[in-house]
## 1
Amino acid sequence: MGRMADRSRDASEGPARTAGGRRVCYGRLMPHPMDAYFAPPDGRLFACFPGAEVRPGQARMAALVFNAILEGAERREAWRDSGSEPEAKPDAVIQAVEAGTGTGKSLGYLVPALASEARPVIVATRTKQLQRQLLEEDAPRAMGILGRDLKCVLAKGRANYLCKAAWEALQASPPAELSIPDHGLWMALPAWAEDTLQGDREELARHGEGESELWDKVNARAERCTGKQCAHYEACFLTKLRQEVLEADLVVVNHALLLADRVLRESAFGSVLPDAPVLVVDEAHDLEEQLTDSCAEAWSSRAMALLFRDLRDEGAKDPGAALLDTLMLPWEDAWARLLALVPLESAVFGFDDPRLPLGALADAVGDWVGAGQEVLKEARRLAASKAEADPSALVWRKLAERVGLAFARMEQIFAQPEGWVSTLAREGPHTVLFKANPVDVKPFFHQHLRRGFETVVLTSATLRDGRGFNGLRLRLGLTEAEGERAEHVESPFDFERQGLLFVPPGLPERRAGRDGVGEPAWVEASLDAMTRLLKASRGRALLLFTSRKMLAHFKPRLASACPGITFFTQGEGLGRQALLDRFRKTPNAALLGLASFWQGVDLPGDALSLVVITALPFAPPDDPVLQARIREADAQRQGLGFIGIQVPQMTLKLKQGLGRLIRTTTDRGVVAILDPRLMLPTEDPSGKRYAAQVRAALPPFPLTRDWDEVETFFTGL
Ligand code: SF4
């Protein structure tokens, strides 16, 4: 397999520019400002970290990011100087950079962004691990390199913080009963609430991290915050956070908060994040998915339960709210009747799915809205009955707004507007999620990101599919010019020496079918292949599955076929970090993971020498949003749906999976892909002509189909 084409250009290429009144030269033969930090041997990186590896990809990325920031500032300055109308405000400069694993991309964007005059810089990541790494490791390193102290803040969604007003109210009237997992939290809350400086629930992580009825009662959710009318406003953790964020040089957030904040700033609830000139979206490979989620209209059984509870709690405190209690009952009953119509099977249903009794559901929504109108009227009446300065007036107004919002969302979801796909998802026995998902996220990318910043950097180890940046361009609606300036910067790893890509010979096609596992012939052949690989590697393996059923089928059979290996499985009690720690410390271990383990797992060194990809990770073809996108693409050009959407999406995920193996220049190992579709000839008669394209997009590991070569490789480790 050939090496990927090197599209990177000389870091010093390009015209001289001016920005902010400074002349900055990055013309050919002129040094680039980033050389002061990244050029060996005298760049500050090497002075601060003697022995640091020379990474040309990192230096190139820093130059690209710095240039984009200057260009964005220059565009904005020209617009301000011209006194043009607000509508003529220029779009952000969009710079996409695919930085292969090991490039050191965090410093590749932090140093140029923080060296520029742009403040604050917002960095959005998908995973908590990367947020932690940015705050604890990369930002301090960047400060060392820049020789400056900078203020870095991690901002989370409001529900992560304690609401002092809600906590005070709960202490005055403690909950009559608590769920078993909430007991520990209830015991820990008083001392913690007294001492905490940030009010961040993560400080209480040993008392549970997931859903908690108790935490829901005391968190700083926007919908019940009374803002400046609250007696605790000055001391509120959110007020302090907003202040810190305003003074920060670097604000780290997750994608969901970034996007929710951009959407919220157009609504009455306001936002936490400040206006910022520069946004870096790291882990940008699934930005389309994040935009779909954040811009969807959604209503859920959980949101409804919270609203019922908030109404009842407020009613219990208000002597004038006796009628509300009576009105709530028929409304709650109507909701229960609606939920009873949802199939019990955990799945995502499109509204054209024959398993959904759509007519009956729509009638039930009508009944629920009808019964709720009385509650809405009563909440409005209670709000109007209070003096304006009475905080409970605002609380009732906000409750009434939430009731109205619930109706509006459900009505929109059931109206199935054009350009949106309505879905109903059951996620376990008690959770139902109604959603209208945008088919096309390009307008949202434009509105919330391109129009909202001077410069937007999109980066990830996996932005290119088999057709380069074309897929990213089509998904986000990047212009041709934005697509052309996108670059791949090389990983410093020597994949040809450090690893092997192995597709076992003689495997039949899997054909998952309805059972989600595969044809018996593939199952048996794959079990033999996994067993042989695990014995050759002596464990030290990550096995990535594409379905829960598949993992559940293989796990016991692998355990009995490989008695010397300790198996750890995602979703069996231990949290992600604890599971990774246990795996790392256990000799001859194998870790079996699902979707979330295809990315963000970082296991450098001897702990990991084998990654097994059980099947090419195509998204489930019955996903209603995917189906709608495929239909739309097919309508534009026949066949574009599969080759233009499913294959690129799968390729990015496959690259993420492969990226788990080599994490440092000394790591060595094998990636085995148990899906023979990867080897289909270019002219495959079944029309699956994507294999060569996919192979070309992967890191350039030598490809083998020879068991002897693989086993010899492992004996050399
Ligand atoms: S300002 Fe809002 S979030 Fe803060 S304590 Fe008051 S009600 Fe709670």
## 2
Amino acid sequence: MTEGTGMHCLLIFPEFTAGAFWNYRATCELMGAKYPASPLGLITVAALLPKSWECRLVDCNVQELSDADIDWADIVFTGGMIVQQHSSLALIERLKASGKTVVAGGPDATSSPHLYDLADFLVLGEAEVTLPRWLADLEAGCAAHIYECGEERADMSRSPVPRFDLLQFDKYLHISIQYGRGCPFHCEFCDIVKLFGQVPRLKSNEQILREIDLLYASGHRGHVDFVDDNFIGNKREVKKLLPVLRDWLEAHDWPFEFSTEASINVADDEQLLQLMQDVGFFVLFVGVESPSMETLVATQKRQNTRRSIAESIRKIHSYGMAVNSGYIIGFDAERGSVAQSMLALIEASATPVNMVGLLAALPGTQLTRRLAREGRLHEDFAVPPEDAADQCSGGLNFVTKRPRVEILEDYRRVIAGAYAPHAYFNRVYQMGAALNCRKKKLRLPWRERLRELRGFGRLIWRMGVKKDYRIEFWRTLARLALRNPRALRHGVSWMALYLHFGEFMKVVLTRLDKDIELAKASHRPHEVRATKREPVAALGAAPIGILRYPDPRAPVLRSRLGPTDSAGA
Ligand code: B12
Ligand code: SF4
């Protein structure tokens, strides 16, 4: 390999496991897209590379990686999150077999570097910190195998504009950008503070406008997702950004609408809600975690206490922003079943999409340290289920306080109850009725409107004609059209998501039934971690993959990270 002019650099984003909560491909297909979200990490890495390097991106979630792509490359960069680990490792083997130089990085390689040893270089943590060091050493001919951030954090005001030009925009439902990293809270189970710190680091308003400008110039219109851990982590600064963004949008005839993650205290600040509504935020992911105040206090999710969560969520709805919620089951402080109260809260909040997962102890979190002190952490706690898709098919990697079977049964009740067609569609209606869409200003060009119309046509065929819950679809459509026609577009999107969630939840329930059976058969009701099982064919999903405990592969896989709960806001 020779560095310098003309270096062919291939950036490969590995494939996600098919059967995952966020992997709503069926819904993407309606819009002619392949995957919901564009990869931001690798295009940020590309922007940090020397200008003379020629970069190409292959996102394996939206396109095939061909041998010709690999042949073209002098050097390959790859990396992703834990749920891409199996595909990442297989990819690195393929690349090494082709004699390529491989640089690995990103969240999973940072968490479990030794698994990526086959790569020539491990450039870990925030690339803004480590990549320049590696490049300098490479140029000097003394590059080491591994580069880490240590305590150093990236100065976001110097983070480069990502190479959006490498994306195939029409393959995604939305395009990711990032304003800041880090979160001021310290929820016991969350690793965000460990990964990105407690003081949110932000890009400047000028940087964000430059990125928005570029997206506009590239022809993208519609949905842009701020992938911040907590968008309102620094309210003072975000309140300065939003008016500037509003002016830009006005000057460009409102080409974008936004989504992000935010902590629930956004509901306490009407000025902030107003500013977010004004620029066209239309969906927020909020970590609710539990209906039990005792549990929230114990897990240090204090911002969710001393309030009615349902009221806070409804307030956000009243500012035209839909809420997607995250819930976790398996906390120590749960006293008996939480299923009923969780379902009641989901109902009262009228949130159609609720990411309900099992608690997992992640390396580096306060939770993990406490469980270790109490001698309750599984020896292989950091080993993810084989082919685990996400928090819906992994977790409980510790000795639980309640019998495991009770937790799994609770989980089953919540999933079955919340995702039954009637319950889901009713929440779509309730939320749609509550969404104040009078201030929506998004103006899509004809090309985008046609895309949406075609998507709606496909939805009518797939859901309104072919699905056995088609009555719910038509009823919700009609009720919403009469009650709040302005919210119809959003209501239709949430119904379209059910093409995925309806099928996905059946798979989760089948897996849970087997887990519950295994847990019942166990002599160690708080400890059993179930077993390997036959693959569940639907959705191309992998086996539930909760590992035998103790697992014979544990020594090899020891430090693989378990899938997270609803980390993020
Ligand atoms: C957006 C996002 C998603 C999107 C993914 C969209 C996409 N196509 O990328 C969606 C919603 C699908 C998603 C889902 C999940 N996610 Co997610 N997600 C994020 C989030 C909020 C932002 C990621 C991002 O774009 N960041 C911005 C870019 C610039 O940062 P970055 O990717 O880390 O890249 C930087 C460095 O890592 C590095 N880098 C990245 N790649 C490479 C490669 C090389 C070669 C090099 C040198 C450097 C390098 O350079 C970049 C610049 O510094 C992060 C949290 C976070 N703050 O990062 C979690 C995060 C990545 N997700 C995580 C997880 C676990 C999940 C889920 C499994 C569960 C969950 N919590 O929801 C699911 C499952 C996904 C699935 N099966 O479909 C974990 C990953 C933990 C780990 N160690 O792997 C994170 C860190 C959050 C957390 N703690 O829960 N997620
Ligand atoms: S769960 Fe959310 S609010 Fe809590 S520390 Fe993590 S990112 Fe912040």
